[in-house]
Design a protein that fits this description.
The complex is a heterodimer of chains A (83) and B (159).
Chain A lengths: L1 E6 L2 H6 L2 E5 L6 H9 L3 H7 L6 E4 L2 E2 L11 E5 L6
Parallel strand pairs in A: 1-5
Antiparallel strand pairs in A: 1-2, 3-4, 3-5
Chain B lengths: L2 E7 L5 H9 L7 E8 L3 E2 L2 E10 L3 H16 L2 E9 L1 E3 L4 E9 L2 H18 L2 E7 L2 E4 L4 H8 L10
Parallel strand pairs in B: 1-5
Antiparallel strand pairs in B: 2-7, 3-4, 4-6, 4-8, 5-7, 8-9
Helix pairs in contact in B: 2-3, 3-4
The chains are: A alpha+beta (83), B alpha+beta (159).
């Protein structure tokens, strides 16, 4: 299945605005992040475990355990700093 | 029925006009609390010449609307107005408005503070400052997480 991955702020600058990623059915948000990390390079650096990276599924804050479905919109971004 | 509206915009806003609209025709309002956040010209010891605000269109509005729902559950409010600007901003410009009306003052004041504490750590906005040393993304503050935790909400942002 395909999911759309979006990046914001410092992650957007390093990784681009968005991309479509093919994943196995049943993949969780955390497993998707690990897969992106496994690419190495900027993805490994920006999404590294231990870095403060927040995530959302279908425009709602979500954690690693969230199951993905075909067509899901996933986003990775740094801690927010509005207000 | 609470009247509420959330707008994300590049344009500036007028606090008086927003409060007048929120109070319009509602004679049950006995209190109005408003907060306006503005751009400072110094941050972490550096001079800030400009700021760029990015957000996650769609999620931003959805997140703030759910915060308003939670504020209405906790406080007896009659109206809520939230405006957050995005794009390029200069020092002294307005960034954010939260205005709340209620019958009595405590609900308006507390709901306003609750919404700002919530928005600071859970709404998807990011600030980038321009300084003499170049542009830098603003770091999230753990003090803001602590401010939200006071309301019994443990939702870490700064990490």
């Amino acid at each position: 299945m395909k999911v759309q991955v979006r990046y914001f702020a410092s992650l957007r600058e390093a990784l681009g605005t968005q991309e479509t990623v093919e994943v196995d059915s049943g993949t969780t948000l955390g497993a998707l992040r690990d897969r992106l990390i496994a690419r190495g390079g900027d993805h490994a650096r920006c999404l590294a475990r231990g870095r403060a990276v927040r995530s959302a599924l279908n425009q709602t804050i979500a954690d690693d355990s969230a199951p993905l479905h075909d067509g899901a919109e996933v986003a990775f971004f740094p801690p927010v700093t509005g207000g | 029925m609470v009247r509420s509206a959330v707008t994300i915009q590049q344009a500036d806003f007028d606090l008086s006009a927003e409060i007048a609209a929120l109070r319009e025709g509602d004679a049950q309002v006995g209190a109005v609390a408003g907060f306006v956040g503005t751009v400072r010209d110094r941050s972490d010891g550096a001079s800030v010449s400009a700021m760029e605000l990015e957000h996650y269109p769609g999620m931003t509005e959805r997140a703030i609307e759910s915060m308003i729902t939670e504020a209405c559950r906790r406080f007896d409010v009659r109206g809520v107005r939230v405006i957050h600007r995005v794009g390029a901003l200069l020092p002294r410009e307005q960034i954010v408005l939260v205005a709340v009306t209620s019958a009595h003052r405590h609900d308006a004041i507390q709901a306003c503070e609750f919404l700002m504490d919530y928005l600071k750590t859970q709404a998807p906005f990011w600030k980038k400052e321009s300084t003499a040393d170049g542009a830098r993304w603003v770091d999230a503050r753990q003090a803001d997480d602590a401010a939200l935790a006071r309301w019994g909400l443990k939702m870490d942002n700064a990490g």
